[in-house]
Design goal:
about 230 residues, mainly alpha
């Protein structure tokens, strides 16, 4: 009987919490992040290890460009779920966003943790495509003095090739485009498009023709063929 009464009194709190969560979730879906935030924070006070709530608050931090808040929430998620690859991926991504927004001196402090986070993703999930893309971007953008390297970027492009030929050719094309090897980039993007024939593969090749090679004839021909 005592157990029954305890559950009876607990029910309103559970219902109230769930109602608030649904309200906050709906606000988030409507991109009303500033309104959703205090509701999620109140829920978190009642349930400090609520994974979904912490995840929402981390995402809100990203949308509001509150990088430190987002970093703290995803650090918490990593601690609670140390074998969840995507939390390391998101954490590394947030460090990258903060580095980009706050300048090179901040970036220098964060690049080590960023790289380690993406590498940890691959230890937990060897088939993770996005982490390899992130590491390609990392090794292209980071100065050589701090470990940047085309060779290392190519290594992850080769790994992508074995997991997903479309991603492999796209990543090779991206590296070629970055170093202004536009003819090679074209060949790789064409191979990717021949396999994938998707909006992504089309857009990469189309943008290369239009903005880098500056060949409107090729761009228009590609667009016509893709729209058929």
């Amino acid at each position: 009987m005592k157990k029954f009464l305890f559950l009876l009194f607990l029910m309103p709190a559970i219902v109230f919490s769930q109602t608030n969560f649904d309200k906050a979730e709906n606000l988030f879906a409507q991109e009303k992040f500033s309104e959703a935030k205090p509701i999620f924070e109140a829920i978190l006070k009642e349930s400090p290890n609520n994974i979904k709530t912490i995840e929402y608050l981390g995402d809100i931090g990203i949308h509001l460009k509150d990088w430190d808040s987002a970093i703290n929430y995803y650090q918490t998620l990593k601690n609670l779920k140390p074998k969840e690859a995507n939390y390391y991926y998101r954490y590394g991504g947030i460090l990258g966003l903060k580095s980009k927004e706050e300048g090179k001196w901040v970036a220098i402090q964060l690049i080590g943790d960023m790289r380690k986070s993406f590498e940890k993703v691959l230890l937990l999930n060897p088939n993770h495509l996005e982490a390899r893309w992130a590491l390609i971007e990392y090794y292209l953008q980071v100065p050589g003095l701090f470990g940047g390297s085309e060779k290392k970027a190519q290594r992850y492009a080769n790994e992508l090739m074995s997991l997903s030929p479309v991603d492999g050719y796209l990543s090779r094309g991206y590296i070629d485009e970055y170093f202004k090897r536009f003819s090679k980039a074209e060949l790789n993007y064409k191979k990717a498009h021949a396999i994938g024939n998707s909006k992504t593969t089309f857009q990469k090749l189309y943008n290369l023709y239009l903005t880098k090679i500056k060949d409107k004839t090729k761009a228009n021909k590609l667009k016509t063929e893709f729209n058929k």
